[in-house]
Specification:
Structural class: mainly beta
Radius of gyration: 27 Å
Largest sheet: 10 strands, parallel
Shape: globular
Strand content: 35-45%
């Protein structure tokens, strides 16, 4: 089956965190839902219903009669230069836009390429003009040589060119002019001119899900205005914005994800946002009456934007309301480090968090568990002290190698330490000021000596350790060793079993500073136990750990980076184990009763494209769905919030037999055999 896994950000065996689910799918609509395939070598005259019959253009997709539950799958490694105008899904079925195949994510460019010397005409004094009249809209940015540099836009009606790469848009002649010593197409190998347009036209659309797509070089936003119940998972966007907003050389677009006014129930998760002119993720509005709520921005990597996260709600009164806004567990890097920082008409003004003239009616706004790493100007900037009312800022990690932590504009006050900033705004009580210790300049996982580990607040999702880590990635165990246990394999509707075990585990290369082990029982759950060390022997106790299949996996974290270096990652080979006790207990836990009467339904089974789960009356507790193959390997993990009754899983599973598990509070509530036929 060609379908897509919706990512899970913070599970032990994956770099992602939050569940991503398509909700309320019914069997009747599954029968009619279809997958449509799109690739650059396809034909619009094809049916679109297979890779061999793939469509070619987005224009064909936009004109198709898609219905709720349909999936539009773009071939990985292919590129389009068209705007997506999605149809709407429904509360029963989302409409899905994703990827298929292998390789890089499908790429959607909002730019016109000007790579031929015939594309440019010398109009004198090293000024070159494009030779056609194709730029009927403003050009916000010019990206040279596959993102090695960008042009500098002159925002004036009478430009004066002085340096290589400067450019100007002529609103009367609809052309661009560029200063270049030599034909630009001879100086640069690739010239991408970002047009004033949005990648997604979403006005009035509802129940649409986007995943595994890459958007670049759009002169406005990737998305703005209208649209409710919209979900973005694992989306990349970069080099966005820069176009003239009003056509008068005063204000430039824009944000990457622009959540505007009457939007609600928007999820932006697991995404990578880089090099955006204004806010990487922005919430904005200015009218007197609108209602903006239920906006979830979690586990994103946002880098090199002027404002990595911005709240710009300019009205101070009226009937507009903003509530239930969540910016949590994001990793924000180098505010002001992008292409637009030094060419802004309003001057450089970088910050990770911008809160600008909030409206009066606001509540339940959370900025928590985020890493804010270096900013050219400020980490946080608020227009006035009262702007933080209704906002909960806490459990964040502030790191500013030099410069200002916070600024309050109307007081003209700058704060250079987190301590003074906490006092000034009466917020951030549990936040820390620490270098988060990333693995590298491009890998933002945490090293094990990071103070951000276990320093967050529980926001309702699984985590590995006594508390969640701050930032987008949860620390993971290094390696594991399989330990056989005497249990039967999972069978359909089997009663869950609890294994109570004690093992003596020998770690030949262990050092005395190790005092905790992270225990992962076949991927189902983890606990952290203090252990006794005697020489190179460790006594490890697993208490009431869920076990299925014929093995458990014991994993442990490295105590510090030096230990990892000295052992060169070979520590798993040195583990020996010896079962001391192995006691099987039937599951009896208060509040959990026989699940056979709970009307849990998994359909279709056999499945080919979608797996749908009706959870019945188990919705009062949070749950985890896991799918394992017959070898015991976990191939899918999904976290389900309380109250969710129906879930659709889109997963690229091979043909075969699997076991699907419903788990809550460390217990397997339900298991069933799942057959996949492609």
């Amino acid at each position: 089956m060609v379908s897509q896994k919706i990512p899970y950000f913070r599970q032990i065996n994956a770099p992602l965190k939050n569940a991503s689910i398509i909700i309320f799918l019914t069997l009747s609509t599954i029968v009619s839902a279809k997958n449509y395939y799109v690739k650059s070598t396809g034909k619009d005259s094809n049916t679109g219903l297979s890779d061999a019959q793939a469509w070619q253009t987005i224009a064909k997709v936009n004109g198709a009669s898609l219905i709720a539950g349909d999936s539009v799958l773009f071939n990985r490694g292919d590129t389009w230069r068209e705007q997506i105008a999605p149809k709407a899904g429904s509360a029963v079925n989302y409409l899905y836009y994703g990827a298929y195949g292998t390789g890089a994510k499908p790429l959607f460019l909002g730019s016109k390429q000007e790579n031929s010397t015939s594309d440019w005409v010398n109009v004198g004094t090293n000024i070159w003009q494009n030779s056609d009249a194709a730029f009927i809209v403003d050009v916000g940015n010019i990206v040279f040589n596959n993102e090695s540099s960008c042009g500098v836009k002159l925002m004036t009606a009478t430009p004066t060119f002085t340096a290589q790469g400067q450019f100007w848009y002529d609103f009367l002649k609809h052309r661009i002019r560029m200063y270049s010593i030599g034909n630009p197409a001879s100086v640069y190998t690739n010239i991408e001119c970002a047009l004033k347009n949005n990648a997604l036209y979403m006005y009035g659309k509802t129940y649409v899900l986007f995943q595994n797509l890459d958007f670049r070089y759009w002169g406005s936003h990737v998305w703005e205005y209208g649209g409710n119940y919209i979900k973005f998972y694992d989306i990349d966007l970069s080099y966005i914005g820069g176009s003239d907003q009003y056509g008068d050389y005063t204000v430039r677009y824009g944000n990457g994800f622009q959540v505007w006014e009457n939007c609600h129930d928007i999820t932006i998760e697991s995404c990578k946002v880089d090099n955006v002119y204004d806010g990487g993720i922005g919430i904005a509005g200015w009218r007197m009456s609108y209602n903006l709520y239920n906006i979830y921005m979690r586990n994103n990597i946002v880098s090199n934007c002027e404002y990595n996260y911005s709240v710009e709600l300019f009205e101070t009164g009226g009937t507009a309301t903003v509530h239930n806004i969540y910016f949590e567990n994001n990793t924000c890097i180098n505010a002001g480090g992008g292409w637009g920082h030094n060419q802004r008409p309003d001057g450089p003004n970088a910050c990770h968090v911008l809160i600008n003239w909030f409206i009066a009616n606001r509540s339940d706004i959370y900025i928590r568990n985020n890493i804010f790493y270096n900013s050219t100007n400020y980490i946080t900037k608020i227009s006035k002290l009262s702007d933080v009312a209704g906002t909960n800022l806490d459990y964040n990690d502030y790191y500013q190698s030099s410069g200002i932590i916070g600024r309050i504009v109307d007081k003209n006050d700058n704060y250079y330490t987190l301590a003074t900033w906490k006092t000034a705004i009466s917020q951030e009580a549990h936040s820390i000021d620490s270098n988060p210790s990333f693995v590298s300049k491009t890998d933002f996982h945490l090293q094990t000596d990071s103070r951000a580990i276990d320093a967050g607040i529980d926001i309702g999702f699984p985590y590995n350790g006594p508390a969640p880590d701050i930032g987008a990635f949860e620390i993971q165990p290094i390696k594991g060793v399989d330990i056989p246990v005497n249990t039967s394999s999972v069978v359909e509707n089997a009663t869950p079993k609890i294994i109570e075990m004690t093992y003596n585990v020998s770690l030949a290369n262990i050092i005395p500073s190790v005092n905790t082990l992270t225990v992962q029982v076949n991927g189902v759950y983890r606990n952290v136990y203090s252990v006794a060390i005697s020489g190179n022997r460790v006594e490890l106790t697993l208490a009431t750990a869920v076990v299925f299949g014929d093995k458990v996996t014991v994993s442990y974290t490295k105590p510090n980076s030096n230990w990892l270096q000295t052992n060169s990652g070979d520590e798993a080979a040195s583990i020996t184990y010896q079962p001391v006790t192995n006691k099987c207990l039937e599951t009896t836990k208060p509040g959990l009763v026989d699940t056979k009467e709970r009307k849990i339904i998994i359909y279709p089974n056999p499945a080919s494209n979608f797996i749908n789960i009706s959870i019945g009356d188990l919705t009062s507790i949070p749950q985890i769905i896991k799918i394992i193959d017959l070898s015991g390997k976990i191939v899918f993990t999904e976290y389900i919030l309380q109250g969710i009754k129906n879930v659709q899983i889109i997963e690229n599973l091979n043909t075969g037999i699997y076991i699907i598990l419903l788990i809550s509070n460390n217990l397997i509530l339900y298991s069933q055999k799942l057959i996949i036929n492609k």
